[in-house]
Amino acid sequence: MVKFVPLKEAVAQNLHDGDAVAFEGFTHLIPTAAAHEAIRQGFRDLTLIRMTPDLIYDQMIGMGMARKIVFSYVGNPGVGLLRRARDAIENGFPRAIEVEEHSHAGMANAYEAGAAGLPCAVFRGYRGAGLAEVNPNIKSVTCPFTGEVLAAVPAIRPDVTFIHAQKADRKGNVLVEGIIGIQKEAVLAAKRAVVTVEEVVDNFDDLHPNLTVLPSWTIAAISVVPGGSHPSYTHGYYERDNAAYLEWDEIAADRDRFQAWMQKNVIESSADDFAARVEHLRKAA
Amino acid sequence: MSDTEDLGFTPNEMMTIAASRALKNDDVCFVGIGAPSAACNVARLTHAPDITLIYESGTIGTAPDVLPLSIGDGELCETAVTTVAVPEMFRYWLQGGRISIGFLGAAQLDKFGNINTTVIGDYAHPKTRLPGGGGAPEIATSSREVYITMAQSKRGMVEKIDFFTSFGHGEGGDHRKRLGIDTAGPTLLITDLAVWKPDPVTKEFTVVSVHPGVTREQLQATCGWTVKFVEALDETPAPTELELKTLRDLQARTKAAHAGTAKGKAA
User: Fold this and answer.
1) Number of residue pairs across A and B with CB atoms under 8 Å?
2) Which PANTHER family does the entry link to (chain A) (predicted)?
């Protein structure tokens, strides 16, 4: 059953060296606090899975924690490139990393297949695309009914998935709303799932019946971390810190500046620091 | 580049406005971030108020007051008709054939509308690792048509792209059909200097309309392949006052909104 535990414990109990891990969030609800806790605990040789790696994987790669990265868009959304990830791919710094690259459609279908308990996903994709030539995990199957040749990719099944969500009720059911991205599939595809939430409420009695709720028994651990997705945002709580994304481009451009920033803002910080970081981004009531 | 001092608008403004004009009120448009996003919203705010704008974050029928920095800004969700999960976006709405126009930008483009946003140099040992395709590989093949917009440069518009992120017309002619792709592919390219359309047979992008004040020499000097022109070459109508005001207001609101979050930031 789900346990409410401090983030430090949730990460220590569910993430291990060498794991294939997904910290999912599609621009919205990025589990930054969980990623920073993983960085503080210094895991090694991780396979990092995520459609849009963005800042947290740039940070984990820059700290030398990743052996491999599985992704479909390795950019800083709306800003440009991810400079630590680039340094690793282009120069092997601080270590070389293996790359498995897909399209968004490929990743989304692969997560869905993982959640559905299928070995692979089948979809109409990668036609004429160079990725099909450089990624051996992109293959094709022929429809037995129509003869149409379709793309096939293996299901994604992370050892552990981390997501951030709006709230949990006291039983540990979790509500995700707004841009829900791939989080439901990433949780259901994983062996274990850890969720950080903005708050815990008594119950979900007043919710609309079709909202995305992950039942408590699909989740291993919940940690309450207000502000835990900063500089991403949590719909209904605080806005995206676009300025931080712009600033990251400069921080990550320089190896030393990156290290100094990580030391101050991650290594010497804790999950408790996130609430203050979003204070100015909360909408006036 | 061109002497636009007297014209009262910049080449980039002309590009965005020319791109916006190509969109129709009943289009369902899958919007790429950056230049396409600006063009699509100018269209919505001028001649195409009912256009359906879709961003790959799952927001369908969105009407943002400011341009999003990312494809998943909260504004997109708050103003959307509905917001769906990402797998649903790609499976039902894009793959399902619901998108009339896929609107893409490009880092590198060739004359057949093939796009590279993946790497400069060799894939395994890239000189520059770009962000990659995201949704584009399937937007390029599942949208009924593809529009492309980018500013011209010799680095950007090249004879041979380094990587086929998104398939356009391949080697030209019927290459799409030979690969089993039954959508039209790139049918329009809008740059800061001209409007281009593919030749009906060869599928090579050909200039059909030159923006005001732009010369053929300028067009060739900023393009890595030998530029072809249609015989009945048009001049793109200059931006109207309404178009310019709409674009500039949108950009001013956007700038103010994105700078606003910088104040008092802790980390």
Assistant:
1) 209
2) ACETATE COA-TRANSFERASE YDIF, CHOLESTEROL RING-CLEAVING HYDROLASE IPDB SUBUNIT
